[in-house]
Amino acid sequence: MSVIHKDLTNKDYVSWKQFLSETDAWDVRRIREFELSEIKRVVEFAYKNTSGYKRIFDKAGIKPDDIKTLSDYKKIPFLTKEMIRDNLDEFSTDFPNRFYVTTGGSTGIPMGMYRDPVSFAKELASKAHQYHRVGWKEGDRQIVFRGLQIDTPDGTEFLPEFNELRCSTYEFGTDKMEIYRRKAMDYKPDWVRCYPSSGYIFARYLKDSGKPFPKIKGILCASEQLYDFQKQLFQEVFGTGTTIFTHYGHYEMAAIAGYCEYTDDYHVLPQYGYVELLDKSDNPVTEPGATGEIVATSFIMHATPFIRYRTRDLAVFKSLFCEKCNRQHQIWERVEGRSQELIVSKKGRLISTTMLNMHNDTYDHLRQFQFHQREIGKVIFRFIEKPGCNEEILKKVKRNILGKLGEDIELVLESVEEIPLTKRGKHRVLIQELDLKFDHPAMKRTLSL
Question: CA 414: distance to chain centroid?
Fold first, then answer.
């Protein structure tokens, strides 16, 4: 007897997913009409129900009725992470059944906020809507490698209501990965859902051990930047025809963007929130290949509304139309990562962690690695060696990485026994302790992409 996928029993999930399906082919005129209507609604709601938004609107001389066009909307002052962190109650409402959550602080500013069950159901449905593009459906078998602490002897648990085999990544050693592999051989998942870093570590284990894994339809990545070297390994280990999908999102639920079924470009979902991509002077980014900060207004968050919210995340603009799928959405060539995923050189160059992709055997003798920056111009490269790693190999590793980073970076190699996870069980490629805001002096320079 089959079990109905739990999300399909949630009326808010089902109705929102149906709405997204019905509006997926909207033309740009209909999209703009919807965005303006939602902006008016959200602004009026926040103004009437929070002292924080009322204060900043009044100070700017703006009333909800003044927002008649998208140009009027852009007169609204920006909301920052610090404002929410330091004044949460002033920017929150007494929305029914709200609950408190916190971010992991990927930009160096951990903060809390309130969600509600309806907004979270819409969040899950928005992700599912994107997954459907590549063939996923509720009830498909999936094995999950995310930040999960599972209190069972083998570190796994099966959730029949999601048809999902969950595997803890908090004890992601060789013994555990072999247990997960054997479980997968019996379970035969259709999909792997993972943090890119967790999926990469598991894929490295499969490659190094030479042991089989069931044929899968694809890999659904989330919550971290997906690098080319990770995609390359996924294709090598799981098969060249394997679908690899990822999306951009955040705990504040103000913006979401995912690949379409034809390209590895991010399509911003306009029904979810209004998203601007702004340059260092807060002007719209319109040139293909130019980088901007993601500034977003959520249409689904009501317990803690987010209006013109500076995410500190960066994306590279591509177009306002996808020629492959014909969606008239804002398209990003890539999400360039959080500003805290940039390395600053001695000369002030900003080096994206995407530059650290390697298309050779540089990382083959390392079980795991992580970059760490505490001061400008100096980076520590921590790594866990695999058997057979030696001094000559490490010299080559250092030489290849410096070839990517440039001469104005001091690189220090440090062999370690363990690389700690974040509180959410993520394997971060870069720990950046410099506070890189988009208006940070270093950010005035051109990104090294």
Answer: 28
**Are the C-beta atoms of 211 and 181 separated by less than 8 Å?**
yes
- Asked if the structure places residue 25 within a domain, the reply is no
Query: Residues 83, 273: contact at Cβ < 8 Å?
Result: no
Establish if 352 belongs to a structural domain: yes
pLDDT one-digit tens code per residue, 262-283: 999 999 999 999 999 999 899 9
pLDDT tens track for 343-354:
888 887 767 665
Please tell me the distance from the alpha carbon of residue 223 to that of residue 169, in angstroms, as a whole number. 14
**How far is the C-alpha of 260 from the C-alpha of 264, rounded, in Å?**
7
Of 442, 268, 436, residue with least CA distance to 346: 442
Taking each continuous run of H as one helix and of E as one strand, the counts in the chain are 10, 21
CA–CA dist 279, 269 (Å, integer):
21
Beta 99-102 vs 112-115: how paired, if at all? antiparallel
Number of domains in the chain: 1
CA neighbours closer than 13 Å in the CB half-sphere of residue 242: 22
Domain membership of residue 283 (yes or no) is no
Q: How far apart are CA 232 and CA 239, in angstroms?
A: 10
| 43, 328, 412 from 393: Cα distances, Å | 58, 48, 15
Is 394 part of any domain?
A: yes
Adjacency order of strands within the sheet including 342-344: 342-344, 350-352, 447-448
Asked if 39 and 47 count as a contact pair (C-beta separation under 8 A), the reply is: no
Judge contact between 153 and 23, C-beta under 8 A: no
Measure Cα distances from 244 to 24, 162, 164 in Å. 21, 21, 19
Residue 235 CB burial class (10 angstroms; 0-12, 13-18, ≥19):
middle
pLDDT tens-digit series, residues 119-140: 999 999 999 999 999 999 999 9
Phi, psi of 424 (to 5 degrees): -95, 15
DSSP one-letter string for 304-358: S--SSEEEEEEEEEEES--TTT---S-EEEEEEEEGGGEEE-TT--EEEGGGG--
Look at residues 309, 376, 374 and name the one whose alpha carbon lies nearest to residue 349.
376
Which range marks the domain in which residue 441 is found?
Answer: 341-448
Tokens, residue 299:
């249409």
Q: What CATH number is associated with residue 374?
A: 3.30.300
Q: Is 181 helix (H, G, I), strand (E, B) or coil?
A: helix
